[in-house]
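[step 3/7] fold_predict: job queued, chain A
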Amino acid sequence: MTAFDPTRPHPILLAGRWVESPHPLVVEDPYRPGEPAGHTWLATAEQLEEATRAAVDAAPVMRRLPVYERARILRAVSAGVAARREEIARVISREAGKPLRDALGEVDRATLTFRLGAEEAERIEGEVLPLDLNVASTGRIGITRRFPVGPVAAISPFNFPLNLAAHKIAPAIAAGCPVVLKPPTKDPLTMLIVGEILVDAGLPAGALSILPMGRELGDRLVTDERFRLLTFTGSPAVGWAMKERAGKKKIVLELGGNAGAIVDRTADLDWAVKRTLVGAFSFSGQVCISVQRLVIHEEIWDAFVERFVAGAKALKVGDPLDPETVVGPMVDEGQARRIATWVDEAVAEGAQVLTGGQRQGTIYPPTVLANVDRASRVCAQEAFAPVVLLTPFRDLAEAFAIVNDSSFGLQAGLFTNDLAGAFAAFEELEVGGVILNDVPTYRIDNMPYGGVKDSGLGREGVRYAIEDMTEIRILVVAKPNVP
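[step 4/7] structure written:
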C-alpha cells in the first residue's frame, strides 16, 4: 500500500479489482480553483453492470461468512484507517475543502464506525418466543434470526466523504451484505483510498465496488431490482424522488434539515455561545444538522447576541490546510453564489445582517442574520452554509412552535437547566433527536440518527442500519404428538 499521489490518477474499485475507464475525472480543490486535488475515473455502464453481477454472486458468500471473519475484517479496516490518519485527512481537506482539524476528526470517527461495525456484527441476536398462547399452539416455540437482505446500493454525499460512506459499508459488512458504493464525484478520492484498506483486509471478491459515476448512470442503482436495499444520504428533493423510483427494495434516506437550537434563560450562557458557534460554522455549515436557526429567550437576547456575533467575527477563515482555520471554502463557487443570493433575498425582505454576508470566491464568511422572515428561503429551506438566523422567544412553548414550524425534522438542541422544559422538549419537538445542553450538530456513531418529515426515512448508527440491512426470519418448532 503506497501513499496517495495527487499527480497520478487513482484507479476505481470494481469487485475487488483496481481498474480504469475511458472517462477521466479531475477532482477540483475548492480553495484553490484550477488546482486539482487529484484524479480518478468515472465508471462506465459496463463496469456498473459487472459490479452489480459481482455483488449478486457475492451475496451467498457474504451471508455464510462467519461472524468472527466479518468482525476481523472490520477491525482491520478500523486499524488501517487509523494508521493512515494524517494522509486521509489531508486528502479530505484538499478535495472537500474541509478544515484540517475537522478532517482529522472525521477520520477518527470513521475508525470508530468500523470498530462499532465489528462489535455489532458480534451481537446480532434473535430470540426465543413462546407460541403456546392458546390451546391450538400447545407444544410450539419460535426462534428468530436476522439474515442479510442481499446486495446493497449505497450513495454517499460530499460533506463527510469518509464517515458517511463508512456508515453504509460498515453495517453492510457486519450484516453480511455486498455493497456497490457511489461516492460523490466532487470528492471520491477519500473512499478510493479507504477501498485499498478494505481490499487488504480480506473482503471476499465481489463484496465491494467503489465506483464514481455521473448521476444518470448512478440512477441505475435506484431502479435496479437486483439491489435489495438502497441507502442514500443527500438532498431531500433527490432522496424523495429516489423513493418513488426504487420499486420494491427497502430504502433508507438520510436527508437535510434546517436545525434549530433553543437557548433558554436558564442556560449556561458561555457554554451555549461556545457550542452554537461550533454548530453553526463548522465546515462552513455544510452539515445537515448544522445550527441554522437559533431561538433565544428574550431575557438573555442582548447578552447572547453580543457574545455570539463577537465569536463569529473572531473565527479564522481561509485555507483549510491551515490547522488554525475554522471556516474554509464552500464545496464550489456555485454553492457560495447560491447562499449569497439567499441572504440578499432575506435582506431585501427586511432581515438585518449582524456580521458577514460578503462572498469572496468560494469563501462565504460566518454570517449572522436577525429579523428573518420565516418564509424566506434562507430560513424555510436547508441553507447548508455558514449562516445562522437569530429569533427571540418568550416561553418554551413558543420556542418549540418556532422550531417545529419547518418541513424538516432531523435534530434539535435545547440549552436549559429547567428539567421540566427538557422533558417537554423531548415530547414536543418534531425531530429524530433532541440534544439537551448541546447543539443539534452533535452526533456520535453508535446513536440512532435520522429524521422525520422531509428529513428522511429510517435510521443510521451502525446497530440501527444493520436492522434495515437484515430481515427477521422465524423458525417455528412443534413437538410432535403433544396432547
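[step 5/7] annotate
The two ends are 66 Å apart (CA to CA).
Residues 20 and 450 are 36 Å apart (CA to CA).
exit 0
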